Amino acid sequence: TRTLALEGVTKRFPTGTVALTGVSLSTGAGEFVTVVGPSGCGKSTLLRLASGLETATSGTIEVSARAVSYVFQDATLLEWRSAMRNVELVGELRGVPRDERRERARAALDLVGLTGFEAQHPRQLSGGMRMRVSLARALVAEPDLALFDEPFGALDEITRLQMQTELQRIFRQERFAGLFITHSVSEAVYLSTRVLVMSGRPGRIVAEVQIPWDYPRP
Ligand code: ADP
Ligand code: ADP
After folding, report:
1. Nearest bound ligand to CA 41?
2. What is the pLDDT of residues 129-171, one digit of tens each?
3. CA distances from 155 to 31, 95, 139 (A)
4. If residue 106 lies in a helix (H) or strand (E), which one and from where to where?
5. Which residue has its alpha carbon closest to ligand 2 atom 21?
6. Measured between alpha carbons, how far is 130 from 119 in angstroms, rounded to an integer?
7. Which ligand is nearest to the CA of 217?
8. Which residues line ligand 2 (CB under 6 A)?
């Protein structure tokens, strides 16, 4: 069974713009699917449809996940809270008792390599570290489905490469179903088990490439 499945999805906005048409794709546990395409081809719309932030005009979208996490490009962190308290937020919203949510937040920060930085506030952290906090906040919910909207697009090259390596290590450990959008072909190839190429206006999927696990990665 698929964690996320889109079948023949078309989205027309009230403005009349058709953002995407006839899009079918799916992802499941242990699959990291990347959608790569130029700006304006409907990638963000696709992710918003997958997360339920938008509804499809036609076609079907099925999600079979207890928890869905979303990671955006700018680390949307609460500036007045420490790294720890940012990651704890998810547990607070769900009413998880304090000790338990602290413990989970600590474990999530450890997973992204931020042990020792729990008390730092976002402005004290580098761009890469802020992105790590965002990742920890997404992972602390133990998502079955993780959606990534070009999360590393604003990072410098070195930090971006570090984050790609980090995300891949975490993915191999956590085995959630991943859907990642980017405009960078090399990033897509590096990260994923399957690359879908999206193109046109409205956007449609024009190619699909499987990436073997043993594909050489630095
Ligand atoms: P991408 O993420 O690939 O850059 P988007 O999904 O952001 O593409 O946009 C695809 C198309 O849909 C663009 O033409 C964009 O202007 C249009 N679009 C996106 N969101 C809206 C909206 N809320 N209302 C109207 N048009 C939109
Ligand atoms: P753009 O983002 O402008 O589309 P590219 O598609 O060239 O640029 O992607 C560059 C990014 O992809 C780099 O920041 C780097 O992190 C990553 N990258 C490029 N080549 C590799 C590689 N061989 N292995 C892993 N990551 C790579």
Report:
1. 1
2. 999 999 999 999 999 999 999 999 999 999 999 999 999 999 9
3. 25, 34, 20
4. helix 98-111
5. 186
6. 13
7. 2
8. 157, 160-161, 164, 183-187, 190, 218
Q: Phi, psi at residue 163, to the nearest 5°?
A: -70, -35
**Residues 181-217: pLDDT tens digits?**
999 999 999 999 899 999 999 999 999 999 887 777 6
Helix (H) or strand (E) holding 164: helix 157-174
Q: Residue with structure tokens 């919203």? A: 93
CB 88 within 8 A of CB 75: no
- Candidate of 34, 35, 155, 161 to mutate for ligand 2, largest count of ligand atoms within 8 Å of Cβ: 161
Distance, C-alpha 14 to centroid of its chain:
27
ipTM over 0.90: no
Q: Of 160, 159, 197, which Cα lies nearest the Cα of 181?
A: 197
DSSP 15: T
